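If you are new to this repository, start here. Below is one unmodified record pulled from the training split, so you can see the exact layout before writing a loader.
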Amino acid sequence: MIKIQYQKEIKITGPQSVGGVNKKEDVLKIQSWLNLYARTNPASGTSTGIDGDFGPSTEIAVKNFQKAIKQPQTGKVDLGLFNKLCEPMVNAFETVSKGQTLRDKIINVAMLHLNNNAFELTIKGQSNSGPWVRSYMDGNEGEPWFWCMGFVQTVIDQAASTFEKDFRTLMPRTLSCDTIGTTGLQKGLLRRVADIRKDPSIVKPGDIFLVQKTPNDWFHTGLVTAVHDSVFETIEGNTNEDGSHNGIGVYKRSRNFVTSKLDVFSIEPLV
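And here is the target side for that same chain:
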């Protein structure tokens, strides 16, 4: 696998605690994972500030996490407890996905990330931040870093690597929707919305949809998981319940390609 930033997000250098010999980068990771746990367990009491300071608030949040997973409430984070905190990311990236074909693998890998609650955080006033975003965006995070394409390429990379394939033979490694749209035009792999509306069968599960702003400008992307007469089912990152291109997480959605302008980049040459 080429995009391996996630490996940095699932490690700390040593135990962290109030009054301990703490490392700010490690504490930031701990606080981030505590807040990510709170997203799906809002009554857990693990929400805390993300500032790199292991103070009393972080200690209480740690104790609440320990209580939630039925461990002794020491308030200290050793390597074993940190592994529990970041377990969702390990599951998403390191579980052997099912599927006999690359297209099946892509969908199943995307489902792994969806089912492990890949969400962004707001850190120091900056959205598009946190361990999941950095993993998809090659270490980048913050307000300007829309992460939908980072998610798409991470999933395709993870799936392709199980077949010992390099996704860069199909498209450049990029965080840009425009780069993939332009590459699709140059290689004859971009299925235009007008053609899709005439014949939806030209789109296959595992292909990449691109939301068109103008014919040569795209601002959001995701993976097609199923094709119907007028609708794609999708899994996409950096979206929300409304289908925003700057949302908060990975969601499974449906998008109407008759009422919306959706081009599609075909992954067929990689298959």
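Two things worth knowing about this chain: The chain has a mean pLDDT of 98. The beta strands are 121-123, 126-129, 190-191, 208-214, 217-227, 231-239, 249-256, 262-265.
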